[in-house]
Amino acid sequence: MLTTEQACERVSDIVGRARRAGADAADAVMIADRQLGVSVRMGALEDVERSESEELGLRVFVGTRSASVSTSDLASDSMDALVERVIAMAREAPEDPWAGLAPESRLLHGSPPLLDLDDGRESRPEDLRDRALEAEDAARAVAGVTNSEGGSASASASVTALATSHGFAGAYSLTSHMISASVLAGEGGRMERDSAWHSARHATALEAPSTIGRRAGERAVARLNPARIASGAMPVVFDRRVSGGLLGHLVGAITGASIARKTSFLLHALGEQVFAKGVTICDDPHRPRGLRSRPFDGEGLPVLPRSIIDNGMLETWLLDSAAARQLGMDPTGHASRGIAGAPGASPSNLYMQAGLIPAETLIGEIDRGILVTELIGQGVNGLTGDYSRGAAGFLIEKGEITRPVSEITIAGNLRDMFRALVPANDLEHRYGINAPTVRIDGMTIAGD
């Protein structure tokens, strides 16, 4: 696989070719990666997969017109043909007064922050096999587990490089390691399925495979014999497994594209109270070994930790340069991009700060409610904020978690849900987006 220096040379080279061929401006991104994965089922090896790839994307500007192309053919002659093709495409593209590179004065200069995202480790297939077997064995050993969908372990490494024609060139590498297990409990038509997984930048930070497997088995068994419940309004507690999804809906409503197109239920909410006082949501691209940490954004701008929601107030949109120009604002360092197309905007390590109340207290105060551990479907209207999702979890009765429940729908409006949200004190940085257990009173439950 390419080194960061080699990847940086590649993107700088093709940007230079584009400028010499007549482009007014250009930027290029390259991603090289290596992946290895092993899966097992019922104690036997099922599959081993390995892949390596190198892809490059080039975007050029001719006046206010732009076009982009991507390729995995990195031969020198192919690069020249690619440049000619994309410039011809740009000359025929419609004009876009907002498109362009990030402001030159805002580019990252100097050394990027050291985030410890690459452990330099190349895992062996036999090591991954052993992790997968250990996880599945632990899951199958849980009393009540009757079948398995398998265990898996994977390891990957990648290099991302970005160069622009107005002075930025940078690259960084990262690794990722993952273990998972998925099993079934029960018999016949009463079987229930659940899973567990853990991912980390460094292999040494992974949970023990047996811990992950045992958690998967216990979750599946706990879901056996779900009850049906009557419809009504009641408090809903979102487990940490799913509470981060609420932040995902917030992100969709505050990205620059949604605001510029006027398709957000939070369109006029900047500077307003969106959550209850005491709720703070932060974005931290500099978190060491973070699953979404990065030293610069998708346009070469520096990235900094910042509060998105501060004490309930919405403090900022998430803006790439094009959306910022359209809104008459400055880009916020949240540009993100893949190989093809123009940048969009997204957060890095987004999290809701822990509250002051233990999760047990949030649950203990409920006479009758639902603890949600799984959400199903995508029933969220980004324009109105209307929220309706299939769900499964557990019934809360007299402050105690009692019977499992499934085949229910929880509904509300995100504006109301955000203002009613109460976070517990059990935040754990486990995913790319993290939130503690949260409680929202007065949601509508559709059951029997």
TrEMBL record:
Residues 118-128 have a biased composition (Basic and acidic residues). SUPFAM superfamilies: Putative modulator of DNA gyrase, PmbA/TldD. Pfam families: PmbA_TldD_1st, PmbA_TldD_2nd, PmbA_TldD_3rd. Residues 124-224 form the Metalloprotease TldD/E central domain. Residues 26-90 form the Metalloprotease TldD/E N-terminal domain. Gene3D superfamilies: PmbA/TldD superfamily (3.30.2290.10). Belongs to the peptidase U62 family. This is Metallopeptidase TldD-related protein. It comes from Sphingomonas rustica.
